[in-house]
What does this fold into?
Amino acid sequence: MTHATPGRPSALRIWWLAARPKTLGAAMAPVLLGTALAAVEGPLHLPSVLLCFAGALLLQIGTNYCNDLADFLKGTDKDRIGPIRATQAGWVTPGQMKLATQLVFAAAALVCAGLVARAGWPLVVIGITSILAGVLYTAGPYPLAYLGLGDLFVLIFFGPVAVAGTTYVQTLTFAWTPIWLGFGPGLLSVGILIANNFRDLDGDRLAGKKTLAVRFGVTFTRLQYTVCLLIAGLLPWWVYPEGAMTGPLRMLLLLGASLLVLIPIPFVWKHEGRALNPLLARTARVLMGYCLLVALAWVIPA
It folds into this structure.
């Protein structure tokens, strides 16, 4: 059994830190929103609700473990200024991180199998593509994050796929509303990635990691972050069913979601480098609050 030593966390804490707990809300929030959209259509199937949350959590942790290992092997984390990564710090070996990644993705596949039993082949497609995307995000011969495609991956899989997939598991019918509304959490999740890539811009450039921040520079990155959050704030007003804006509480909740996304924007225009570390957690909290407010606006009685 691994024990904590000075400067080294306990084994349990090492794996918890490697899971990057501040990013886990990005996986859970769209599932919450998708569940709320389904609740309007009828009674929820509670076992599949729990499986959706578990699957999203496992996919996020597996992706983070894979990223920890892949960035170490590519040398990207050598001069990082963000939180310590487990493999780079020597807390775990590459073999241990590889095994952990495989086990977590295997658990995610089992959860997906349970969802397939309820929702059929669409969940096979979602499950396989989600696991593949989680691996190919930083691993493989053409890792998405190293080609500047990480933003698109995050937008799709943490947005429409997560929200609409969750809703489909409950309703077993296709609808456009969860897809369009899913772009809200997708854009805010991209905001988390932008904050990360902006902070790591200099190190990523040296490591050959061609994120959009590296490709287009500081001003573009700040504008990208701002635009993503502003569009997310406006999106629910466009998607919300016509004629449903009848209750003051609903309007207040949506207004709260729209104002919430404005809070972290000034920060990205004032800071660079290591000073951006708080922005990741702030954006993640905005994502959680946004999804909660929009979900409540959807389910409260007129």
